[in-house]
Amino acid sequence: MKKLVLLIIFSTILSSCGPTPTEQVIMNYEQTIDGTKTDLSMDIISSEKIGTVAFKDSAIIYKDIFQQEVDEAILKSENRYIEYKRKVVDAMIVMATARLPQSIEHHRKSIDMYNSFAKNDSIWAQKYKNGDYSNSDLEKKYNLLKRYEASPDSIIADKYLTSYSIHNPLLNGVKQELKKEHWITPGNKVIYSEKKTE
Questions:
Q1: Distance of alpha carbon 152 from alpha carbon 57, whole angstroms
Q2: What pLDDT score does 95 carry?
Q3: CB 191 within 8 A of CB 82
Q4: What is the rounded average pLDDT of the residues 94-112?
Q5: Cα separations (Å) of 104 from 95, 110, 116, 117?
Q6: What is the pLDDT of residues 144-156, one digit of tens each?
Q7: Distance of alpha carbon 179 from alpha carbon 189, whole angstroms
Q8: Of the candidates 52, 72, 58, the residue with the CA atom closest to the CA atom of residue 147
Q9: Distance between CA 77 and CA 126 in Å, rounded?
Q10: How far apart are CA 141 and CA 145, in angstroms?
């Protein structure tokens, strides 16, 4: 009976020695440098949950960023439209002075192509101005924004304040103690990390 009790106590002690799943996520994140896993002999000193991040917290910032991207996309489309129209004029001038039928045909095809490109950019700029982002690079971002607005109180991440030590290879293995705030999604992915000073 004593052996059984000792075995249970010993296995409990061993199982409590390892990092928690959240600490393991933080350790994996902090020991990955430029996509390469690195052993920094990291030890978690303490890690505590200090809050949450809701959709509404991100939506405020995200909406401004999204609008900037829309404005940039409109400007880019309008600038390309102007550039293509310039190319149409240039091709028309060259075509007017061309003497060979093949050269005239070549410039006529160029004019048609540039007009087509210009029309396409004009359509995209108008779609963006009307709030239509379907089939564009902005569609996923717009859908995410709508999801934020539809469920503003949904939690997208938990905030943790973590103190840890590493052996920094850039400092010849000198042991450093750091404190960082990490935001971790329900899918166990770090989406934000910020160093904290005491």
A1: 8
A2: 84
A3: no
A4: 87
A5: 5, 10, 18, 20
A6: 888 888 888 888 8
A7: 19
A8: 58
A9: 9
A10: 6
Environment class of 53 (CB within 10 Å of its CB; exposed 0-12, middle 13-18, buried 19+)? middle
Domain ranges of the chain: 21-53+155-195, 56-150
Identify the band that residue 14 occupies on the pLDDT scale cut at 50, 70 and 90. Answer: very low
**Cα 78 from chain centre:** 26
Question: Which long-range CB contacts under 8 A does 171-177 form with residues at least 24 apart?
Answer: 177/45
Give the lowest-confidence range in 19-23, 99-103, 125-129, 172-176.
Answer: 99-103
Contacting residues for 59 by C-beta, under 8 A, at least 6 apart = 145, 148, 149, 152
Give CA–CA dist 5/53, Å, rounded: 43
Helices 55-97 and 139-150: crossing angle in degrees, nearest 10, is: 160
Structure tokens at 184: 């971790």
Residue 11 amino acid letter: S
Helix (H, G, I), strand (E, B) or coil at 152: coil
Q: What is the pTM of this model?
A: 0.56
* Beta strands per DSSP E along 23-95: 32-33, 36-37, 43-54
pLDDT tens, residue by residue, 168-184 = 888 888 999 999 999 99
- Amino acid, res. 102: Q
**Higher per-residue pLDDT: 52 or 11:** 52
